[in-house]
Every structure is written in structure tokens, then in C-alpha cells.
Amino acid sequence: MADSNIQSVLQEERSFTPPAPFAKRARPTAAELEALHAQAEADPNGFWADLARRELHWETPFTVTLDDSKAPNYRWFTDGRLNVAWNCLDVHLTERGHKTAIVFEGEPGDTRRLSYRELHAEVCRFANALSARGVKSGDRVVIYMPLVPEIVIAMFACVMHEFHERRDFFGRRDSDGIGQRNGAHTELARVGWGFQALARRIQFRMIGA
Q1: Which of 129, 116, 182 shows the shortest CA–CA distance to 157?
Q2: Domain boundaries of the chain, sorted by first residue
Q3: Architecture (CATH level 2) of domain 84-208
Q4: CA atoms in the 13 A half-sphere facing the CB of 93
Q5: Helices (H), 17-115
Q6: Which helix (H) or strand (E) holds 189?
Q7: What pLDDT is stored for residue 60 in this prediction?
Q8: What is the pLDDT of residue 40?
Q9: Phi and psi torsions of 38, nearest 5°
Q10: pLDDT tens per residue across span 5-40
Q11: Per-residue pLDDT tens for 91-146?
Q12: Rounded to two decimals, what is the model's pTM?
């Protein structure tokens, strides 16, 4: 029998107004955000196309904003091509290279901070190490590690050099492509598997690729 006195702690109805100086520095402002909402509602395709052209660097500019030929399976910017690593890292080096890109807090309480410039250097170092090991464009790389900064470094290194990467981390139980550059494929698997189960999965996926 349900207890009517039990209250859910998963519902939060309180609101917290930010300090005025903090709100003043917000980007976008409330007025700008309202204008963006209105623009997106009036012309969704035009809104996202304009944003994609302004905020991302395209190696091959897109001409198709939204491909709805197989609706309800929609695809965005299907004929465009961009470098994910460049848009996430290189683009920030000139003006924001000194700013923090990653803040990592480990279970023992240790903390690590990596600036964009430091992260970019580590990514290049990791990519060069893969190349030195004979890994070339189109190869598949298996990455098996927990949620630490090195997992981001490894992923960017693979994307930067167009390696096909298979990553196993987070204890995730689904497959979800995170990013692509020039056809690089990414996939998540289960960290909880033993090495034999993981080896069988890798072998099966290699055969089916």
C-alpha cells in the first residue's frame, strides 16, 4: 500500500535568480535569446543553416540544410564536410588557447585542468604516437579506458588522423556515434565486459565492417 506521506526528491520546483552582475555578463542576453527563439520558430532551416555557417569551419560547404527524404529519419548538412578536431580544438588556439578546456576530478579528489593549447598538444602527441606505431588513415583503433582526459585525447587523435576508432568506456550499454571526420566511425561498447567478451565483440565487428 502506497504511503501518502512519501515525497519525491526528484522534483525540484524552486527557482534561483542569478545575481544581477552575473546575469549582465550572460551570453546571449534574455532579449537576444528571445530573438533567437523567434527566428528559429519562423524559419528553422534558415536559422540552423546560418548558425552552422557562422559557427563552424567547413572544408566543403553544405548546400542541403535538412534532408527529409527519408522522414522521420532526418539528416542535417548531408553534402557538407568538416574537420571535427579542428572545430573543437584548433579554432580556439589563437584567442582562447590559454583558457581551460577540460576540468577533471578523480574519485580520490585529485583535479586536473587542461587548457585548449595543452589539450591540442596532447592530441598531436597521441596522434604522432599512433602514426609511429604504423597506424594509418582508415585503420581501426580500439580504446579501452575509463572517463579520464586521455579518452578525449585519444578520440581527437583518431579523428584528427582519420583513424576508425572503437572505444570502450563509461560502462555504457548502447552504441552511439559521437563524431565523424572524413568517414571516421566511432562506437561505444561495455566497459563491464571481460577481456574475452570484448575480444569476441571486436573480432565480430571487424568481420562485419
Answers
A1: 129
A2: 20-81, 84-208
A3: 3-Layer(aba) Sandwich (3.40)
A4: 11
A5: 20-24, 30-42, 44-55, 84-85, 91-96
A6: strand 188-189
A7: 93
A8: 96
A9: -65, -40
A10: 667 777 778 888 889 888 888 888 888 899 999 999
A11: 999 999 999 999 999 888 899 999 999 999 999 999 899 889 888 877 878 777 78
A12: 0.66
Phi, psi of 142 (to 5 degrees): -95, 125
CA distance 64 to 45: 10
d(CA 209, CA 183) in angstroms, rounded, equals 13
Predicted pLDDT at 41: 96
Cell readout for 186 is 566511432
Rounded-to-integer distance, Cα 4 and Cα 13, Å: 19
- Report which of 48, 75, 78, 72 is spatially closest to residue 60, judged by C-alpha positions: 78
How crowded is residue 28: how many other Cβ atoms within 10 Å of its Cβ? 10
CA distance 111 to 107: 9
Beta strand ranges found along 100-163 (DSSP E): 100-105, 111-115, 140-144
Q: What is the DSSP letter of 197?
A: H
User: What are the C-alpha distances in Å from 197 to residues 44, 59, 166, 189, 203?
Assistant: 45, 39, 15, 11, 10
My answer on whether omega of the bond before 72 falls inside 30° of 0, hence cis, is yes
In whole angstroms, how far apart are CA 22 and each of 17, 19, 30? Answer: 10, 5, 13
